[in-house]
Specification:
5 helices; 79% helix; 0% strand
Amino acid sequence: LTNLQQSKSDLLEILSTLSESTHLAEKNVNQFGETLLHSEKELADPGSSLETIITHLLASTKSIQASMGLMRQQIQESREEINLLQERLEKISEEALTDSLTGLVNRKGLTKAIESVLMTIDAFNSSPCILMLDIDNFKSINDTHGHLLGDQVIRVVGNTLKNQIKGKD
């Protein structure tokens, strides 16, 4: 599975676990409500044992406390898993906008960056500028020295550009 598919699968599992936990807690709350109503009726009956009623109420209270404790624990675990999923999705998003060879933004990343700049032009009262670069005779580097060296040249040029960028460039 890809990271995105795995993240989707993990999220569905978290939702399923929370749904089951919520259903169980709801069931326990309903049972507790029934116990309270039953106890109320028993209290009205003069022949009922107060000790038996209290024992039932205590047992029911402990059951709902355990259910709520389990639900609290599952919610905390789910929060932690969701945080990990968020980090994974941020990484996936970054990878989708980045060229794996150079670490620079790819075409999709460039489009997003341009959109962002165009949206903020008015706020800074400035005009955008774009610089395009071509590595002269790059095909001959690949043809003469091979693609591994060509890739290395692209990395060096990319790192040089990245290291020279200042401020909002």
